[in-house]
User: Fold this.
Amino acid sequence: MIVEELKLINYRNYEQMNLKFHPRLNVFIGDNAQGKTNLIESIYLCSAGKSFRTNHDQELINMNKKQAYIHVKVKKVHSDVHIEVRLNSERKKDLKVNQIPLVKMGELLGNLNVVLFSPEDLKLVKEGPSERRRFMDREISQISTKFYYTLSQYNKILQHRNKLLKYNKGKEIDIEVWDEQLAAAGAWLIVYRRNFIKKISILAKLMHRKITESIENLEVIYEPNVKVKENDEVDVIKEKILQNLKENFNVDKQRGLTTCGPHRDDMILKINGLDVKTYGSQGQQRTAVLSLKLAELELVKGEVGEYPILLLDDVMSELDSKRQHYLIHNLKSVQTFITTTMMETLKDLKPEDRAVFYVNKGQID
Ligand SMILES: Nc1ncnc2c1ncn2[C@@H]1O[C@H](COP(=O)(O)OP(=O)(O)OP(=O)(O)O)[C@@H](O)[C@H]1O
Ligand SMILES: [Mg+2]
Assistant:
C-alpha cells in the first residue's frame, strides 16, 4: 500500500499542510525540533488510532488551537482508502474511513498497515517484558481485529479480578466466574501470540542472516507465562490457565493482583544461542531489532496481501553504512518514510527515486 497524500490542520507545529508523496522513498530532512517526527507520527496515528510517543491526544493538537485534523489517502491494490482523524480537546477523537464514522477504535485497524522503526524500539531488547508484549500485541492487532478485541476483553476481566483481590484482602471471595472468563480469553491470546512468533521467527532469522552475511543466527522465542506445548489446542490451554490461577490464588489474594497469565508473557531474542538482552553488543541489539522490523514487513505482506509502509524515524544515523544502504536500496516494493538531519543519507539516490521534504519550523520548503 502507498500513502499518496497527507493533510494536516493544527497538528503539533503544523498549521496547515498538504503533502503528496513518492511511491517509493520519502525523506524528511531538517534540523532538530522542526517537525520531522511530527509528520511520521501523524501517518502512524492514521494507522493505529494513537501516537507512538504519547497516550495524550491533547498534545497532538497545536498549542494555540482546540482542534486538529489529519487526513491520509492510501492507495491499495484493490481500492483507495481515506482515513480522517479529528482531535478535539473537549471530547473523544472522531475517526472516519471513507467518510463513514467509526464506532470503535478496532474498526480502524488494518486500513493502513505500518511498520515503525525508531530509536525507542531498542527498548524491545533492553527493557522488561512489557515492551515485548506491546510489540507482539501491536503487530498482531494490525493483522487481526479478533485478537485486538480479545485483548481488550482480557484486560477488562483482569482489571475486575485484580480489584476483587485488592479490595477483599483476607475475605472470602467468589472468583471462579472471573477465572473462567479470564482463562477463556487468555487461551486465545496465547494461541495468537504463539502463531505470530512462529511466523516472525522464521522471517527474522532469514532477514538477520541476510544483513549479517550469515554470520549470526537470530532466534525469536515465545515465553508464555503459563507453560503450554507447541501443539496444545485452545481448550487445553484454557485448562492450564485455570489450573495456574487456582494454584496461585492464595498468593494472588495476599498480593492483591493476578500473578499468572498471558499478561506476564515474554519473548526472547537470541543471537548464536545467547540472549541478546544480556550478552548482545549495542550493534547486535540494534540489528536484531532491525531484523525483526524487516520481518514484520514480510509477515504483513503474507497476511494482508500487500506490503505495509515503513516509517524510519531517526534510525539512519544509528546504523552503519551497509545497513543504511540496505534500507534505502533494497526495499523496492515498500513505500518508505525517513527522517534525518544529514544530507549524507541522500547521497547516491537518484532524484527520480525519491522525494525530499525540507522541514523547517512546521513548514516544508
Ligand atoms: N502541540 C504542539 N503545538 C505546537 N508545537 C508543538 C506541539 N507539539 C510539539 N510541537 C513542536 O514540534 C517540534 C518538534 O517536532 P518533532 O518532534 O517533529 O521534531 P524533529 O524535527 O523530529 O526533531 P529531532 O531531529 O530533534 O527529532 C518542537 O519544536 C515542538 O515545540
Ligand atoms: Mg524527531
Notes: The mean pLDDT is 95. The radius of gyration is 22 Å.
